[in-house]
Design a protein that fits this description.
The complex is a heterodimer of chains A (about 400) and B (about 100).
Chain A lengths: L2 E6 H12 L3 E4 L6 H12 L6 E4 L3 H14 L3 E5 L1 H6 L1 H9 L5 E6 L13 H5 L6 E4 L3 H16 L7 E6 L7 E6 L2 H8 L26 H9 L2 H19 L6 E4 L6 E6 L1 H15 L4 E6 L1 E3 L3 H8 L4 E6 L10 H12 L6 E6 L8 H17 L6 E4 L4
Parallel strand pairs in A: 2-3, 2-4, 4-5, 5-7, 6-7, 10-11, 10-13, 13-14, 14-15
Antiparallel strand pairs in A: 1-8, 6-12, 9-11
Chain B lengths: L35 E5 L9 H5 L27 H5 L5 E5 L6
Antiparallel strand pairs in B: 1-2
The chains are: A alpha/beta (about 400), B little secondary structure (about 100).
């Protein structure tokens, strides 16, 4: 029987990894994701999984070992944060280019400098062009559910891409919530067996991976890779539906919260969406038509779906937990407004950069954003396109 | 799985850029990389086979345990000059391509 247990985000991720029982985990610990591999290493030591756990000397080596193990034909998982993800950078592109469905949990944490261990999305936002699928979890349950779904999404025959399953550092990774833990057998049944397409260990059919690839072929290979992201979007939807049928919790590319008749919409990802739901309820009680669009899949980016979801709004606030230095706006804002423009949807939008380095965001802060949106809708454009929410000024 | 073709379109390729044909580097002609080519003086050559041993591209043909009279595999020689450098009789000369007939 499924059990409800109090668990931290990191423990929930380790529990999902135990149930998935990957062939290989090669990891190097870093705050705030350390507890994931620490807990999982205990599962390995206790013989609760069949995993070959490789202790490596850096994150660069960790992702190299993971990519190689996936090339050999294994189901492979890993976890990291912040500077650890940054040190994997070179290999992240290779994992995706070689079409290896490695699953990486990223506990989102600010990048240095100055050194900071708390949550923002600068680590995974920086990796957004590497070719990985990216899912973002609002809470502990979603972190657990997303990881189980990531297995099927990444390994689908027409996808074959690595997946980052992201949760907010400390806010979710170290928060205790009640988690519905599904049965081990049910999880195994859901993910099914894994068969790599061209495993290097198939010595009867030798192939070469990762050769020199110059002006005459590289471009065609990149063009071919481009084709994987449409099916990846379908896979996120279909696996989310199948997960809902089996376990009762439904997932898609995004979550529409009080959005159908909403005039004023906040768009956010991860734990910010949970806080925003409180603000929406406060405002709905006052009769304000507030709504929330929570983005779950940032890669592939569901441009058409977002434009469709937002087209009825009077004004939209797009919240970025990362700065794209030198750009005029945050990364989520840039992609959402591009999606709206391409769909011919013209709505006044404003951009809030918030929560950098773990700066707290309260429901009152978000109510303030909705108040701003009433003014933006009335005037047809924001007084300033970009604001820094909660910074001392 | 598709077969290597120099003019293959993007949708005719193996995803991930894998090469399913073992040893197909032989089909990849690199003669255009070469700015100079080795020319052996077969009269002075003592058939020590150093050039064959050291060539990084397997571009020194040997027949009946001898390189004499075999020339070089100019489809795969990149003109690195290692054969000329290791030859104990200095009988391999690197000739600029601009001075060669073809």
């Amino acid at each position: 029987m499924p059990q409800v247990k109090p668990m931290e985000g990191n423990q929930a991720v380790a529990e999902a990894m135990r149930q998935i029982n990957p062939d290989v985990v090669a990891a190097y610990p870093i705050t705030p994701s350390t507890e994931i591999v620490q807990t999982f290493a205990q599962f390995v030591a206790d013989g609760e999984v069949d995993t070959n756990f490789v202790t490596v000397e850096s994150e660069h080596s960790a992702m190299s070992a993971c990519t190689a193990a996936a090339a050999a034909g294994g189901r492979v998982m890993n976890a990291t944060s912040s500077a650890g993800l940054a040190l994997m950078w070179e290999i992240l592109y290779i994992t995706a280019s070689l079409r290896m469905p490695v699953i990486l949990t990223v506990v989102n944490r600010a990048l240095s400098g100055n050194i900071n261990i708390h949550c923002d999305h600068s680590d995974t936002m920086g990796a957004r062009d590497a070719g990985w699928i990216q899912l973002y979890a609002e809470d502990v349950q979603e972190a657990y559910d997303n990881l189980i779904q990531a297995v099927g999404i990444g390994a689908r025959e027409d996808v074959r891409l690595p997946v980052m399953s992201c949760l907010d550092g400390f806010l979710v990774s170290h928060s205790y919530e009640l988690l519905q833990v599904e049965d081990d057998e049910a999880v195994q049944e859901f993910i099914g067996p894994y068969q790599a397409r061209y495993p290097l260990l198939d010595i009867e059919n030798p192939i070469t991976m990762g050769p020199l690839d110059l002006w005459d072929f590289y471009f065609e290979h990149k063009r071919d890779q481009w084709e994987a992201y449409g099916p990846a979007k379908q896979a996120i939807v279909e696996v989310g539906e199948a997960f809902g049928e089996k376990f009762g919790r439904h997932y898609g590319l995004m979550e529409n919260y009080q959005l159908d008749d909403a005039e004023f919409v906040v768009m956010a990802m991860s734990s910010m969406a949970g806080t925003a739901k409180d603000a929406v309820e406060t405002l709905r009680a006052e009769g304000v038509k507030a709504g929330l669009l929570k983005l779950r899949a940032f890669r592939p980016f569901p441009a058409e779906e977002i434009a469709e979801a937002l087209q009825g709004a009077a004004a939209v606030a797009i919240c970025d937990r990362a700065a794209s230095f030198g750009a005029e706006v945050g990364p989520l804002y840039a992609e959402v407004t591009s999606a709206l423009y391409n769909a011919g949807v013209h709505i006044p939008c404003s951009n809030y950069i918030y929560g950098l380095g773990g700066r707290m965001v309260t429901p009152e802060d978000i109510v303030g954003i909705y108040r701003d949106l009433e003014q933006v809708a009335a005037e047809g454009q924001p007084p300033q396109p970009l604001q820094f929410l909660g910074v001392r000024s | 799985m598709s077969v290597y073709k120099p003019d293959a379109k993007w949708h005719e390729m193996v995803s991930g850029g894998y090469i399913p044909q073992a040893g197909n580097a032989q089909e990849y002609i690199v003669s255009g990389w070469r700015s100079q080519r080795p020319v052996r003086d077969d009269e002075a050559c003592i058939d020590c086979l150093f050039c064959w041993v050291y060539c990084p591209d397997n571009a020194v043909p040997v027949k009946d345990e001898s390189v004499i009279g075999q020339g070089f595999d100019l489809d795969h020689c990149k003109g690195c000059g290692i054969c000329a450098a290791v030859c104990p009789k200095d009988c391999i000369e690197m000739v600029p391509e601009s001075e060669c007939d073809e």
